[in-house]
Each structure stands twice: as structure tokens, then as C-alpha cells.
Amino acid sequence: MKYFTNYLCYVFTVFIVVSLSASAAEQKTSKPNIIYILADDLGYGDIGAFGQTKTRTPTLDLMAQQGVKFTQHYAGSTVCGPSRASLLTGFHSGHSPIRGNPKWTNSGTPVDLSPEDTTIAEMLKDNGYRTAIIGKWGMSEAKEEKGEHLASMPSHQGFDYFYGLRTHLDAHHHYWHRLFENDQPFELKDNDFMNNKGVYIHDLFTDKALNYVAQQSKDTPFFLYLSYTIPHLALTVPGDSKEQYLKLGWPQRKMDTQGHYRNDAEGNVTYAAMISRMDRDIGRLLAALEEKGLSENTLVIFTSDNGHEYDKDFFNSNGPLRGQKRDLYEGGIRVPFIAKWPNNIKANSTSEHISAFWDMMPTFCELSQASKCPKTDGISMVKALKGDASQAQHESLYWEFNEKEGPLQALRMGKWKLVKKYKKPDELYDLTKDISESNNLAKSFPDVVEKMNGIVRDSRTYHPEFTLKKLPNPWKKQEKK
What we know:
The protein has one domain (31-394): Alkaline Phosphatase, subunit A. 27% of the residues lie in helices and 17% in strands. The protein is built from eleven helices and 15 strands. The strands form two sheets. Strands 1, 2, 3, 4, 5, 6, 7, 8, 9, 10 and 11 form an eleven-stranded mixed β-sheet that branches. A four-stranded antiparallel β-sheet has the order 12-13-14-15, covered by helices on one side. Strand 5 and strand 6 form a beta hairpin. One of its GO terms (molecular function) is arylsulfatase activity. InterPro entries: Alkaline_phosphatase_core_sf (IPR017850), Sulfatase (IPR050738), Sulfatase_N (IPR000917).
């Protein structure tokens, strides 16, 4: 009897240990991997799932069918630098440490991320994630001579691994010759960006992303920020991507081939081919997740950093929206957003939840099961991703931008959109009835304008480099020197 009792105790103990181990293992792997894919200057209507009829994007269209598309998602800004800073820090452009592209500052000196800034990568790393950025960084414009750039490099901002382009100007060329791996620069000796010859660096980014996924396991969650440079100017792409568009009889658009942007001679075919090449390579990445057995526990997000710059109505890159890159109309800041996460996100669903780049920090923080999340301007959109109607909503969303047209500001508050231009009357639009922002209602609703102006004033903090005054063009000053 004693032996039997001891045996039962032993069996019970083993059962408890195995159960606890299984529970611990389940908890260990319950944090999803996160892949955030960012296109560069892709318009709201540039992919099939958002209405595109000319450019072929079968991978992204299928991803939308397998997941959710958000129709009211906003970039952090209307140009690259401040948009990416908003994504990484969780602050809109009224609070962000970087509120403009390089040199568009009061001093004419670029502003980079600092050690005091907390990034998504730092937060996720603190919560057990491996972290990597592959592609365009653009948050480190300081000089390299004295190592001034190091504090703002990805490896000093929470990323375990970096492969790609450090600065904005480097990313203007798809055959650029100088890249970084972590903090070390290296040369692609056969690359000639002046004549678009050598290795197409987008392909290198894809290969590195595939290699990164191949190295991952189910034991440790990972965050991959895949920051593509397509379809940002210069417009150029290898010929194999153009073949499917060459015999469609499209009108040709001649491009400048000898300016700062070393474009291919014809634009329309090139633009479509660039986007299709990116779409193809995203398909390769999704297939790699499947092969590695990681797809089920991976949230994949695709979006763009701001509106388009290239299109002149041939592709209808805006869809129904007004404006483009460098505008604070919807076409400059509303971007496509697709998320796929098997068994967590309902397939073929659409969300009208109003969200923005600064929501990514709290969203990823919740997914990482952090006990404490950094203070941001964002709201976790995990419930919206999963189709939960109890998702918390923003009272308002704010943007500011300042280049050659002078300071611009915009506020989204429910159905209302306020646009403020330098030394011009305020504009007010009801986006539920006028998504194209064609009917200015400011004079009809002065109380709404007054209320929104009050929120605008409260939505920004002082930054010595980003005040709301008209700036001289720093690039023209440089050319004169």
C-alpha cells in the first residue's frame, strides 16, 4: 500500500512538473513574432486591395484576403524622416524628436534620434525579443568622421542587427555602393548608382530578410522591421520586372535620367514594375515563414511611410484622396495598411478604425506582454486587429510639417479634418461625406474650427529646431556654396 501511495505521489508530481513545463513553454511562445514591412512613397491606391487596377500586387492582395485591411490608417508624417521617427518612438509630429526631413530645421542641421529616445526595438528587446532592421534607416544623418553618428545608429537604438542604408540621400539610389552591416560600412565595388548598374539593393534587403527568418526559432520571438526603398525615386528596376508591362500599350512618361535621381528613361512601366517586384519579394518572405513553421505565430504588417510622389493620374495612386507626398491632405498621410496573423485576425476583413503610426508602440507593447509600456501618443490597436468592437478610439490625431511652402498643420477629430496652411484661411472637411476634401466647410462651422484650433495649439510642444516659421530651402543654400 505504501509503495502504491508513493507511486501515486510520484505520478502526480511528474504530472504537475510536465503541466507547468508545458504552461511555461506555451507562455514562452505565445508572444507573436512581428514583421513590419514599410514601403517608401507608396500611395494609398497603389495596390490592388486598395483599388489599383494597373499595377499587379497578387501577394499583398492575397494577404488582405487572409487578414485585415485598415482603410483609415495614417502615416506619422507626409515625408520619410518624421514619419519613421513617429513609428519608432510612438509620438506624433507635435511631440516627436524628429519633425522634419534632414536640414529642414531652424539651424539647417539634421536632427537624429538620441540615447534619451525610447524606440519600439528597445521596448521589444527589453521584453525578450530579437530585433532587426533591414533596409532604409534614415534616423542617423550625423557625420561619421568622429563617430558622431553612432548614438543614432540602429545598434544603439535597440536593434540587435542592422543591414542597409544609413541616410536619406543614400536611399535615393537603388544601386548605391555603400551600405552598413551593424555599425560597419562596406562597399559594393561593382555598383554604379550614376548609371544604375550593379546589384539592385532592394534584392539584397530581401535576401537578408529571408536569411534572418531562416535563423529564427519558435523559442524566442523576433521583430523584423523591413524598411524597403521601393517605390521612392529614383525610378529604376531590373528589366525582368518590367516584362509583364511592356506590351500593354501604356502611354510613356519620359523621366530625367541625368539629374539627382538617376531614373530609367520611361516612368510608368518602371513604377509598376518596382511595386510588383516588392510584392513578389514579400511573397517570398511569407513563404519562408511557412517553411520555417513560424507563420501561425507571426503578425505581418504592410504599410507605407507617406503618400506617393510619382503619379500624375495614370495609376490613380491616391484612390479617391486629395494630395500626395508633402501635403497634409489625406493623399499625403493616409496610407494602405494590411495585417495578417492566422487564427487571431479574421480573414478578408476590413476595419474603419482610425489609427496612426504612433499606435504601433503601444500595440507591440501589449503583444509583447510587457508589464509597463512607454508613454506615447498612441493607443494599442490590438482589439481592432482582432475585430473587437470595444477598441478604444483617438479623440484626435495631429500632424505638422514644414518645408518650402511654410508650416502646415492638420488635425483629425472624428469625422472632421482641419488643415492649416501658412498665412492662408483654415480649411475644414467632413471626411464621412467628402473624402476628397473638396468642400471647405470652415465658414459654415466656425465653432468646430475654433474647438479644433484649440486642440491644435495643445497638441505640440516646443522644439528649438522645429518652430512654426517659414524656413529657407537648405538644399539651395548648399548648391550655392
